[in-house]
Amino acid sequence: MLRSVCLGPSILKAYNSRVAVDYLATAVGNIDISSGAKEYALDRNVPGAVMSYHGSETLSLQGRLHTLERANPIPFAKIDSQLCAGTDQLRKVHIFHRHLKGGQHVAFLMEIIRGNSLKEEHVGELLKNGEVTKSEFATFVNKILLEKDLKAQLSNDIPDAVHTEILMTLFQVYCKTIVGDTQERLTSLQTHDINLFVKRFIDEGQLGKAQICLQYIMDKQGLEFVLEKRDVGTIRHFLQLRCGALPKYWKRRLKASNTRISKRKRLGDNSVSCNLSNSYKPLDEKSLLKIMEFLLGETSSQGKYSSSLDATIVYSLGYLGQMQLIDKFLKKKWLVPTSEAVSDETAKPELLIAALSAYCIQNGNMAKGLEILDQFVNKFPNTHLDNVFWRRLIQLSICIGDPNENKKGEISYACWNIMKQWHQGRNISIPYDQGILLQMYDLFKSTKNGKTALDVISTCFQSFYLSPEHLLVPNEVGLLNKYQKLCIRTMALKGNYHKPLKFIKEWSINEGNRKELYDYFITHRKKYDLRQDRIRLHKKLLQKRYDDMEEEDMLLGGLW
Known about the structure:
It is found in: Mitochondrion. Binds to the 5'UTR of the OLI1 mRNA. Its main location: mitochondrion. Required for translation of the mitochondrial OLI1 transcript coding for the mitochondrial ATP synthase subunit 9. By secondary structure, the protein is mostly helical. It contains 28 helices and four strands. The chain has a domain at about 1-90. The protein has helices spanning about 1-5, 10-15, 20-30, 35-45, 60-70, 75-100, 105-115, 120-130, 135-145, 150-155, 165-180, 190-205, 205-220, 225-230, 230-240, 285-295, 305-320, 325-335, 350-360, 365-380, 385-400, 410-425, 435-445, 450-460, 460-465, 475-495, 500-505, 510-560; strands at about 50, 60, 250-255, 260-265. A two-stranded antiparallel ribbon has the order 1-2. Strands 3-4 form a two-stranded antiparallel sheet. It is elongated. It starts with a helix and ends with a helix. Residues about 1-60, about 70-85 and about 255-260 have low confidence and may be disordered.
């Protein structure tokens, strides 16, 4: 029975390695075997099962087991269970080496989930036996947390799996096995790994789980130690979860254009790429002031300019409505009055976005935000404002203010002109960015501004007319087509005839596009003609009515 269950040829063939054989040999090596039994085993010749055992002594493993089966049948069931367990352990080790060593971290995670092995005792046993090192397990955790489509991969293979619950279980296993029950502080690598859990849960909209992970760090480290070591990752997560530095949860007041009723809506509610928690109530103002004072008191060059951390401070102050503290913080940390610009330093766009968001969303003061932007650009001329910055600027210009007072989009057009001037001043072209162009299209459509839409085509879509047709992306061509039709529609409905035809000739990308635009122009030209006919008919009827009244008045006057 033992040979058929645990030592069949298929098992030894599947694990045709010294590891499997040595393990099975060790499993029965602790049982005392008489010299007669050893001789019996040496005399047997079983192909495929001969190995080195205890130095130079060679014997057949199957022969030894057969001897044990005849000479000592009582403990055989115990041996059988031990060997079967050993074979199962070998299978897990083989899976580990096949998936984890091969970089297939999600496959390894699914394997241990199926085997119900994502537990402290199982992982601890792997670490204790040396089959997995702490470094390898930490690397596995890092790779899983950085996997963008983890939810899709797990749901395809394990339909009932909730990936955030699996990650929470993984966090608990990590704390028990890698960190342990020690009272010592976390190492830098352990802090980094747990901050990855915090970031992942924030991105997933699981703020409760993120708070648990953050609290674990704070219990081990303490805020004073975190500040002393300048642990930027932990400080940022502390500010985000407990001091309001998550702008996607900020609420802005919306007012319908035709009613006096207003409501508050979160900034991230309409974003398809943003997962939001149902509640967000950060209340820790004292810690925020303590962190800000510590950063303002730093004198080292490392803490002089830190855009990411300072941006988080500005978000927190903006959430609390502390605009005067934002001014104080930025002026003391970044905008110290000097006679010369700081040419060797740059302010990253994320800091400028934070300042603009605080003034626009929380204070409703776009002018103050743009004033801060001018000061930064003058002080740090090498600062590069990327597409994300301009996208946020346009978004802020659209969402700020009362729609009744900003029907013509003056603020958004001003931001568009700032964007153009910034690029022209540095002699660089405005790059294509679908997020910016989609927002501007909605603005141009609502204000019926075909002239500026043509300006966008000539500045942002130039690469489309220089690239081969087969390299054009369909959705990008679709956006260009929207702009083309907007220009044609506005020109046609104004009664222009030659301008639309000239536009079609100059700005169509191929023959098919040219025919489509021409048909579109004819359709709207007919609409214009019909509207003019109705207007002429209406004027004619009014004139006839007026003439009839005049004739009637003349008749009545003659009778008098």
